[in-house]
Amino acid sequence: MIKRKTVLSLVLLAACPLLVSAKSKSKSDSGKIEINLMHFSTSEEVSNKNGGATALRYAIDQYQKKHPDINLVLNVLANNEYKEKIATLSAANDLPDVFMLQGMNTASWSKQGLIADLTDAVAKSPYSKNYDQKKFYTFTANGKRYAIPALAEGTCCVVVYNKAVWAKAGYKTFPATWDEMIKAKDAIQKTGAKYVCSFGNRDKWQIDSCFLSTVGDRFTGSDWTYSMIENRGAKFTDANFLAALKFTQDIFQSGIFNPDFNVVSNNDSNDYYILGQSASAICGNWDVSYIYANADKDVIENTGFAVLPQPSGATASYKTHDTGQGYGLAISSKVASDPKKLAACVDLIEYLTGPVFADYLAKNFALSSVYKVQNVDLSKFDAYTRDFYKFYENPGCEIYDSYINSAVIDVLNTNLQTMLNGTLTPEQVAQTAQAKYDEVYKK
Question: What SS3 state is found at 102?
Fold first, then answer.
């Protein structure tokens, strides 16, 4: 384990551990409107310089100062615990008043009547003219909108690499193909690094979000992905997606990754990179923040950012990286029975995704959100932040688990982890995922 730096946060908010049921009265004993807000922007995320988390907590603080008439009851959980808890609450029809909705759940939860229809609220929002409308796609079902995209736009798939290590191994630039990555193994290990690249898939979702969604796009192109999202005929068993699965299995058995990739977390993978045990790492934008908060100056100054190398035989797209806003702030449908509380909840989610949040995010982290901020001054940021900002100039593609039903994704991710160990074949993974897809998406 590495010793983390002490990071001075601009925002220090206490997270209340209590979750108040959505069945609570809309007003507390003091007469204030009570709103239960559940999210996963923990103080640890702030200490690791996660821009979205820090900006959200800042916006919450400002909202509370501006609205003494609202009793905001917070329940803040780490991301993995949040996913488990919100799934349990949805199954019990006991969602908090306001919460983070993952895009993959939009269609099913709206069909079940669990979440409020926000179509009119979004259209009438004072910030609507500044919203990036295409970012609502994740939270749209049957032409209706059920959340406002929250936190920062981010990527789940970026390669961080140590330029000095790769130069020592004889590479002036990061490899453009996976064949080059494999050939680099001996030269990289002679520099003292154990691994060409590190990865952490302990929690199963990483292989989907941080790797396959991008690799899949290289083999299938975006039309296949949108067809899967919209149930228009594409299948996991299609030859181009099977090719992506076969490549994924082969590359993780090639010996260039840390052999414990299926049992370590993404933070463990980051630590391999920070400590010089790995010459590169595949991660998400949150890991980029973690590395910045925890790495020594030498590592930070030598870190570069690249897209995934191109797989052999993949011709559908090039240099893509999956990106988007996978979570949005939604409102429980139960709130709709209390018009005054509903209006307060709408005002809250607009505030937490609007200009106060977006300006803080842009000016302090050079990150964007659903509310567009113009003319961000990059000159005050260090080279690490500026270089990562430029990374977003590469073309984006969609993240599978932002859209495809969670029941399908759970089956896919579990079997992908087993496939990487060589126990399941790509064909078995595809067939099982398609069977679950057909079951869930019956018309």
Answer: strand
137 touches 107 (CB < 8 A): no
Sign of the Cα pseudo-torsion (17, 18, 22, 24, in order): negative
Which tens digit of pLDDT belongs to each residue from 191-229?
999 999 999 999 999 999 999 999 999 999 999 999 999
Q: In what order do the strands lie in the sheet with 280-283?
A: 280-283, 158-162, 303-306
The CA-based diameter of the chain, rounded to the nearest angstrom, is 69
**What amino acid occupies position 33?**
I
DSSP 154-212: EES-EEEEEHHHHHHTT-SS--SBHHHHHHTHHHHHHTT-SBSBB---TTSHHHIIIII
Q: Shortest CA distance to 41 belongs to which of 234, 327, 355?
A: 327
Q: In whole angstroms, what is the distance from residue 62 CA to residue 359 CA?
A: 13
Per the DSSP assignment, residues forming a β-bridge with 73 are 36
Using DSSP bridges, classify how beta strands 148-149 and 327-331 pair: parallel, antiparallel or unpaired: antiparallel
* pLDDT value of residue 29: 52
> In DSSP terms, which residues pair with 397 in a beta bridge?
322
Cβ contacts of 74 within 8 Å, gap of 6 or more: 15, 16, 37, 38, 39, 60
Listed in sequence order, the residues at least 6 apart from 379 whose beta carbon sits closer than 8 Å to its beta carbon are none
Look-up of token digits 């000159």 = 379
Please provide the DSSP assignment of 23-80 as one string. TS-SB-TTS-EEEEEEE---HHHHHTT-HHHHHHHHHHHHHHHH-TTEEEEEEE--HH
Arithmetic mean of pLDDT, 39-58: 94
d(CA 189, CA 196) in angstroms, rounded, equals: 8
* Per-residue pLDDT tens digits for 72-110: 999 999 998 999 999 999 999 999 999 999 999 999 999
301 φ/ψ angles, rounded to the nearest 5 degrees: -70, -25
pLDDT at 2: 44
When the pLDDT of each residue in the chain is averaged and rounded to a whole number, the result is 92
Cβ pair 174, 166 in contact under 8 A = yes
* Tally of CB atoms within 10 A around 220: 23
